[in-house]
Amino acid sequence: QVQLVEEGGGHVQPGMSLRLSCTASGGPLKDYSLGWFRQAPGKEREFVAGIATRTERTRYGNFLQGRVTISRDNAKNTFYLQIGSLRIEDTATYYCAARATKTAFYAFTAAEDYGYWGLGTQVSVSS
């Protein structure tokens, strides 16, 4: 059973960039489809980005298209979320997630598709 730990959150100013990381233990990430979600206070958890196991195909939430990149480093058992041009509305707790599957051609976008979650890392954007 894989455990996930996010790092990289913090306070940043609008327009800056941030890279979040999610490191796994207890299993090889190469056998998992991976995703990032976020949840702002009083709002539902929403899909940010995902990457498939078999094809490395990526998918992104529409509101973030062009500002985020998800990537993985299987050798380090870590995956990343790069967010550029941060906005105040990007303030949220960001969660990484994993789904055990070796055959996924497309990234999963629904929270219920993922069985493993990190505890989250807070990103606060303000001037």
Question: Can you give keywords for this protein?
Answer:
single chain, 127 residues, mainly beta, 4-stranded antiparallel beta sheet, 0% helix
Summarize the structure.
This protein has 127 residues and is mainly β.
**Structural classification:** mainly beta
- The parts where pLDDT drops under 50 for at least 5 residues are none
**What is the general shape?**
globular
- The fraction of residues assigned to DSSP E strands is over 45%
The quaternary structure here is single chain
Q: Helicity range of the residues?
A: under 10%
The pLDDT mean sits at 93
Largest sheet: 7 strands, mixed
Give the N-terminus to C-terminus distance in angstroms: 40 Å
Structure summary, number of beta strands: 11
Secondary-structure element series: EEEEEEEEEEE
Q: Taking Cα atoms only, what radius of gyration do you get, to the nearest Å?
A: 14 Å
Alpha plus pi helix count: 0
What does this protein look like?
The protein is mainly β and 127 residues long. Strand 7 (68-73) and strand 8 form a beta hairpin. The mean pLDDT is 93. The protein is globular, with a radius of gyration of 14 Å. It contains no helices and eleven strands. The N and C termini lie far apart (40 Å). The strands form two sheets. Strands 2, 4, 5, 6, 9, 10 and 11 form a seven-stranded mixed β-sheet that branches.
Helix/strand layout:
Layout lengths: L2 E5 L2 E3 L5 E8 L6 E8 L6 E6 L6 E3 L7 E6 L4 E6 L8 E9 L15 E2 L3 E5 L2
Parallel strand pairs: 2-11
Antiparallel strand pairs: 1-3, 3-8, 4-5, 4-9, 5-6, 7-8, 9-10, 9-11
